[in-house]
Design brief:
four-stranded mixed beta sheet, alpha+beta, single chain
């Protein structure tokens, strides 16, 4: 199966810190069999044009919670999120981490999408 990893930060991402296909640990012992670069056109298609804010982020949560699966992935997506502000992390995380980060932000905080890559799992 394929899905995407979205780099989400509170500050614009410099080109040198943009997530790419070589950022995440891949292969044996990793969640990712392999990662690959995507085109700018595909990146644009993958980014929802609607603004996600602390007020509307809960609209993205599914109606039921089935314990562990729901707790780890409340957005019901195969996509992962790279939330490292300093680009030092070698893995991305499921949607619960994104939700936790968003819920801790002050009202009015802007989030930025940096790199978007494809991965196989």
């Amino acid at each position: 199966m394929h899905a995407k990893v979205f780099q989400i930060t509170k500050q614009r991402v410099d080109k040198e810190n943009t997530l790419d296909e070589n950022t995440l640990t891949q292969g044996d012992g990793s969640y990712y069999d392999y990662c690959s670069e995507i085109s700018d056109e595909t990146r644009t298609e993958m980014i929802d044009y609607g603004e996600v804010t602390t007020e509307n982020v809960l609209d993205w949560i599914g109606p039921t919670y089935q314990l562990e699966k729901e707790l780890k992935n409340p957005l019901h997506t195969d996509h992962h999120f790279y939330l490292s502000e300093d680009s030092c992390q070698s893995y991305a995380e499921p949607s619960a981490e994104l939700m936790g980060m968003v819920c801790s932000l002050p009202v009015g905080t802007h989030l930025y999408i940096g790199g978007v890559i494809d991965f196989h799992f």
